[in-house]
Structures are given as structure tokens and as C-alpha cells.
Amino acid sequence: ATADRGDAPDFTAKEIDEQPAAARRLLDGLLGRLADGRLLTDLGLARPDRVRLVACGTSRHAAEVVARVLAVEGGVPSRVVTASEADLAVPEPGTLTMALSQSGETADVLAALDRWDDPVLALTNAPRSSLARRADAVLGLGCGPEIGVAATKTFTAQVIAGVAVALAIASASGRLAPARLAALEQVLDGLPARLAASAALAAAPAAALADELADRPGAVFVSRGAGVPYAQEGALKLEELAYRWVEALPAGELKHGPIALLGPGTPVVVVGAEPRERLAVGIAEVTARGARTVLVGSGEDADLPVCLPAEEPPWGPLEAAVALQLFAREVTVRLGHEVDRPRNLAKSVTVE
Ligand code: G6P
User: Fold this and answer.
1) What is its EC number (predicted)?
2) Which residue ranges in the chain fall short of pLDDT 50?
3) Best label site of 38, 68, 88, 105, fewest CB within 10 Å?
């Protein structure tokens, strides 16, 4: 496929930039179809009692977000299954399997689906992929080609599409009140503008932080609750693009071992620290060891400022993902690595 990167220095930069527009297109097709689970009906799916989310890599982080929204808004039980570990997942009646794969060609995901007979909903950016053919229903991400090997716009799109499905299931199950759904749809509607604002706010600080931190051998990413998958995704971006050792974990787990890694200047990236009190103890522990905390959030003291809604939605600080993508890319550029084609990685892994 020929793709044009226009004025962008690399495809990854271009694709990071395209996220607000991709989010807008996707939301325009989804909002207004969530009440009473209309989206499910449109997809030809019955309301499930439980959900199994199957994915790898970045897509697995999106799956974690979706699982949380199902639980918080609908009380719907779900399980995130790492595709290559699917043999551990027992069949349960009334399950909908959601397979998240931007390429739709990941062999581990396709193989995992052979284990169960439940209906499969694919969330993919490739509507003609093997996964799309295998699935009973397909929700396309409509992001356009993603050339950079590290997923960027397909991650935010998977979160949005998955959250929409989760809210539709929650609404169909009668646990999500219409007024609450309407309020959440409004927060979703504002997401493209917040993604754009976050990219603008974070761009210069991400470059300055990269100047400061590019030569550090590793970094620890922490968050809490709904922010944890974004800490994991930010860490994965730095690992796959800049070849840095990373650790990503709930902030409360720091004290149970990983804090031993921290010394003077170790970068500790604190994601979506709102409300700040929830992370205060963890931050104090980190600063006491002389580590370099990098706060990603909408507070005035943020090192990597982003635009978050006033109240944290159940899908967490998705806007922070954009800032973390920018940071990982800036570090990679400083180190002279090829941004679009990191070593040892492939855009879609078609072997198990
Ligand atoms: C590869 C890529 C990752 C990606 C993973 C899953 O390992 O390098 O960036 O997250 O595959 O890809 P998928 O196409 O299934 O989302």
C-alpha cells in the first residue's frame, strides 16, 4: 500500500497526529447507538452475560480498559485473555468473545479463537483480515493505514470502540441508567478535542523531557485504577521504540519490590494522577529515593500536561496515551533509532 506521510518526519508522528480526527470519525458512527444496546443489535449480537477479551500487546492494554468499563458501568463480568495463554481460559456459557487486533492477522489471537464456540466480535482496523472473516461481527476502527510498527492511533480507536461496546452491553443489561449513559456519551463526544489539546500541550514538554531523560537506561511507569493500562501502554511504547527497560505497575505495588530499582534520577512516570491524593503516598516514596517523577496529568504541576475531563471517566485518562506516545517518539529520535521500524518487531505477527 502506498501511504503518504506528507510533512511529517515519520509515519509514527503522522499517526499520533491523526488521533483526534480518527476518534471523531469513529465516535460519529457510534454515539447515539449505545442506549438499550442498539449497537449490539446492529452487529447482530445478543446481549452477553459475560465477556472474554482476547488480544496481545497494545491491543491487550485496550482490552483492559474495556474490561474495567464493563465492570464499573454494567457489573458485567469479563476476563482479559492474553491470546498466547488462551489455553488457561475455561469456557463459560453466555460469553461474548471480543477479539481486539488492529491488524486482524495476529496468529496468537486467531489460534485462541479456535478454543471456544461463543460468538466473536472483532475490533480491528482491517475489515478484510483473517480475523474479520473468522468473526461473527466486526466493528471496524476506520483509522486508515497505520504504517508505524508501534500502534498509536489504532490503540486510541480500540479503546473508543471497545468502550462503546461495553456501554452498549451495560445499557442493554439495564444496569446503566439512561442519564448516566447520556453523560458518558457527552464526555466521549469531547474526546477528540481533548486529544488534540493534549497533543498540543504535551509536545514541547515531551521534547524537553526527552532531552533530559533519553540516556537513562530504564524507567518505571505507575498509575492507579483506570490509569494502569495507560501506564502499561506508555511503558510498552518506550520499550519497543527506544529499547529501554521498563516496568509498569499499579503505584501501590511499588513498595512490594520494584522500589528497589529506584535510585537518584530513575524516571518514574506517574500517569493520570487525578485526583492527586490517590497517588500521593507513591509519589512521596519515589521522590524520597531521589527518583525523577514525571507527572502526566491535567494538574498545574504536571511535567507532561494533558487535557483530562473534570471527573475521571470509567475508561480512564486516554488523553495521556497521546502524551506518552510523543515522549517515546522523542526519546527514540534523540537516540537515533528508526521510529517507524523498530528492531526485532513486526507490524503483525503471523506466527504463534
Ligand atoms: C505486534 C506489534 C504490537 C502489537 C501486537 C498486536 O507485536 O509489534 O505493536 O500491539 O502485535 O497486534 P494486533 O495487530 O493484534 O493488534
Assistant:
1) 2.6.1.16
2) 1
3) 88
